[in-house]
Design brief:
EC 2.7.11.33, alpha/beta, about 45% helix, Rossmann fold, 10 helices, four-stranded parallel sheet
Length: about 270
């Protein structure tokens, strides 16, 4: 059984930076079950003390030292987090000294300062992309004229989280299409996808991993059976090969890596927000 380790992403802002960095780090380690929690807008002493108390309680509950990935810029808040007894990793610490030396300047640690640098065109593009991803999730809407990319896969192969990540971090209008039993009866693309062939990217997954995921969602159902998972994955991969759709396995691949591969393969050039 995988060892459980509580992990907290703590930030004086949204926590997206801390969570993105932390997730990238944790994916480098196997054999652990990381229980994660994002604490956003920890921007004063009282909130920092509350956060430290929650972190300390998690350590007592699991009888192990928690891990904290922090993007709080105020050193006083960081000191309070350190009192939790957790391993506290400051996202900015490895870079500040080098930048101060290179720029011959001292940083000014003001909470929320980064939010004053918002490019509102970029902000609105990201919000619109998020709305698009949510309204075109799992085949809810099938008019893909405005889509930048359409992820195609069997149910629970990682389509939705990847679409959300692409929207949130790159402003990409990502839709996803779940392959149904009817779709999988043929080696060819479903008719509604054929006009958008250049936007398609296929996701696949190891059948055993797919069964584990589906078992959590619908225990002991036909949907979660080993036979169903093997059949659907095999048929989807056969379709992707026949139609020459670029494909990537999500089994051991992080969302960041999947997103990067999608952008590179389809030639979508966007800077990360």
């Amino acid at each position: 059984m995988a060892a459980i380790r509580p992990v907290f992403y703590v930030s004086d802002g949204t926590g997206i930076t801390a969570e993105t960095v932390g997730h990238s780090l944790l994916t480098q380690f196997t054999g652990f079950s990381f229980v994660t929690d994002r604490m956003s807008f920890v921007d004063d002493v009282d909130k920092a003390h509350d956060a430290a108390a929650r972190i300390r309680a998690a350590g007592e509950r699991y009888q192990v030292r928690p891990i904290v990935i922090s993007s709080c810029v105020d050193s006083d808040l960081g000191a309070i987090l350190n009192e939790s007894g957790a391993l506290v990793l400051d996202v900015f610490a490895p870079f500040i000294g080098l930048l101060e030396s290179e720029l011959d300047a001292t940083r000014h640690s003001r909470v929320g300062q980064a939010h004053g640098m918002v490019d509102f065109d970029t902000y609105h593009r990201r919000i619109n992309a998020m709305n698009y991803a949510l309204s075109h999730d799992d085949g809810i809407a099938v008019n893909y004229d405005e889509a930048d990319v359409i992820l195609v896969a069997v149910s629970r192969a990682g389509k939705t989280p990847t679409c959300i990540y692409l929207a949130m971090h790159y402003g990409i209008r990502a839709a996803n299409y779940p392959l149904t039993d009817e779709d999988l009866e043929h080696d060819r693309l479903p008719p509604r996808l054929r006009p958008y062939r250049s936007k398609l990217f296929g996701l696949t997954i190891d059948p055993e991993r797919l069964q584990q995921i589906r078992q959590e969602r619908r225990p002991n159902s036909r949907y979660a059976s080993a036979e169903t998972c093997k059949r659907e994955v095999a048929m989807a991969e056969k379709m992707f090969r026949a139609e020459r759709i670029p494909t990537l396995s999500t089994t051991h691949t992080s969302i960041e890596e999947i997103s990067s591969k999608v952008l590179g393969t389809l030639g979508l050039q966007r800077e990360m927000f």
